[in-house]
Structure formats: structure tokens, C-alpha cells
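Consortium newsletter contribution from the modelling node. Members have asked for a concrete example of what our holo predictions look like. Here is one, prepared for the iron/sulfur cluster complex that several groups have been discussing at recent meetings.
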Amino acid sequence: MPTAIEIFKYLPKKNCGKCNFPTCLAFAMQLANSKAKLADCPFVTDEAKAKLEASSAPPIRLVSIGAGDAKIEIGDETELYRHDKKFFHQTRYAIVISDNADEKEAAAKLKRAADLRFERVGQMLAMDMLGVRNDSGDKAKFAAMVARVAGESALPLVLMSDDAEAIRAAASAAKLSRPLIYAASESNWQTMASAAKELKFPLAVKHSELNGLADLVEKIRASGVEDIVLDLCPSGLQQLVERNTIVRKNAVKKTFRGLGYPIVTNACGSGQAVLMALVSTMKYGGIVLLDDLDPAHAIPLFVLRQNIYTDPQVPIQVKAGLYPINNPGEDSPVLFTTNFSLTYFTVAADIEKSRVPAWLLVVDTEGLSVMTAFSAGKMTAESVAEALRSSGALEKSRREMVIIPGMLSRMSGKLQELAGVKVVVGPRESSGIAKMLRSL
Ligand code: SF4
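And here is the predicted structure:
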């Protein structure tokens, strides 16, 4: 990304404000921070546009696979370390089905891919893609399996074959929504690139050496294929870390466009497939191809991914409001907590466990936890009293009582005064809520 001064050189310098910024320099500064779009200035010349767009293209190309709701995007990353800003497009996992698979195996893998879904802190964690591998060497058999998988699942596909004719046969056998072709190599790149260009599908490119890969990518780009995904062919975990890091560093720090593409890791057939998936998730992987994924391995893998791809500057939040738990009624008590997801889900689970019907009021604290929000003045007796009023909590519950987190005992007097109801100080830890509710 060029600096603000470099961008400024290409702007019209009219200082007219039509871009919603008072001066061209102010607009250039916003552009440099990716907070404005070049198109917002109506006076940029085509020449300046071409220069700025080329130099402001993301260091790692954004590649989309699939279509509609199931579409996934990989790449378009700008950072080496998550804490510098954030990572944007999470690692995607694909279960691969061989075209030699019998009915039972194919059905089991399709079911597995559909069933691997877990909800955590309000977000759905799920399997992202399916692959079909041409092990038979038979175009018709490959096309039939691709058609079956595409017919039974909406997940984006990876078409795995070294034979461009098999890819074409699969594309004509089923209506495919922009699958990833895997993969072009030194020996087949002309035919694969030509198929990718004709079908308008993204293309994975593999090579066992990084220099060779950069050369191959250059040839494929020159042939007219833009949406490329790199397979760095690591021989093991150490090489996976090394190669993924080298590629990311060169793309982000040196803007080396020759390897500025997302990475696919083929862990099929590896005895360390789950470890490869974990390392790829931590180290810049775009897609991981797996023969299968046990739910016991999927949970930690998905949770790791969720943690890495959560914006470190924006806590995961739930919507503020009044939540009924265990079918509460007029006699049920009201408790309150913050809208920080981890706190909300912990408190909600503990109330659920108690089996006591209750109303849980979630107060907007901008995603901060109880003590942090209290210390930062984001959760005060005034804001809680206002939330009690605006949510209608005190009309839904006629107990004229509110249970507050034990750590907020200091606000009890003032809250009682403002809300006009009895304030009961709850336990300091959420784990004590069940016992307290049962004793009410
Ligand atoms: Fe400058 Fe263009 Fe913004 Fe006008 S619209 S202030 S010319 S950048």
C-alpha cells in the first residue's frame, strides 16, 4: 500500500470536499489507511487511477470459491502478525472424497461434512468445503462423483485432478459454482491454465520449490489466469511453517506479487493431517485438504481458527436486551450481565443448568467484561437502571428485584435508588449462580 504522500501526488488537488474529506491530503491519508475508496473522488484521472490501483492492490490476492451463501473468500491479508491489525479471511477446511469411494464411504463423508457444525459464543463453526479427487484416472467416473457431490451439498468444491480433460468433463456433467481446480504443475500447466481460463475457475498451482513455484505462477499469470492459489508442497510440519512464513513475509513486507496468493495445504495421505491443519491455521493457510476429520479433532481445530480470526480490537459481542432462560414468567427473577460474548454465554449456561426460569438482561458495555466495563465506566448504576427500564424487564418480572454480579456490589445502593427495586448481590463467580437461584 503506498503512503499518504505517494497517493497525494496522484490526486487532483482541488480540495473540493466531494470525497467527504475537506482536502485532498486528508483523503490521501484515509486511502492509505484503507478507510476510503479511490472511487469517492470524481476527478481522479484514468492514468492516476491505474497507477494507484496497481500499487494499492492487496499484497495477497483475494480469491473467491463457490457462489451465493456458500461462497468463501481466501487471501487479501495485509498483516504478518494478528495483533498488528487483524487477519481477514479464515482458513477453510475441505474433506476430500475419492472418485474410487464406494457408496457407503461417499455417503459417510458427505454426512460428516454436513454434520460438522458447532455453535460457540454465538458463532457457527462448520466444515467449509468438499473436494473430489480423481484417483481412478477415469474422466467419466470423476465427473459422476463431482456431479453427485455437487448435487448433495452446497459447499464449494475442489476438483482434484492432474488431467484438464477430467476437469472439463466434471464441469460439463454438473452445474458447478466456481470450484477450485487442483492443481497445475510443471508438467500440465498449459492445459490446466487453459481449462481454468476457459471455465473461469480459480486454479491451484503446485511446485516443490518456491523459486520454481514463482516462475510457474508467472507463466500461468501471463497465460491469463489471475485467481491463483499456491500449494507449497511442504514435506513436513517444519517445512510447512517455513514455507508459509517465507511466502507471507515476501508478499506482505516486500510486496512480492509473484507469490502474493493464498495458500492451500494438501494434508491428504499424511499421518500428521490434523497437525498440518492446526499449523496451517496458525501460519497463514488459506485452505487445508483433509481425507476426513474426526469431530474430536474438529472442535479444537475450529476453536483455534475462531480465536485466530477474531478481530483482537473488537470483542465478540451479543445483542443487548432481555433474554428469557428456562421459560420465565412474572415470578421469575431478573439478573444482568454484559454483552461480552464469553461472559454472556457462561452466565446463560449457568442459569440454564439451574433449571430455574429467569430473565437475563444484557447491558451494552461495548463487549467489555463485567469488571473491565465497571472500571471503564461502561457499566454504571445509571446505565443498568436505563437498560432495566428500556428493556421492559421490570414489567416482565413482578418480583421487584434484580440480581447483580457479585463483583458489582458497590453499585447496589445507587442502583436500588435509581431502579426503585430491591437489589440482591449475586455470587462473584458465574458458577455460583445455579445454587443461588435454587435458594431464592
Ligand atoms: Fe481532492 Fe478529489 Fe477529494 Fe476533491 S474529491 S478534495 S479533488 S480528493
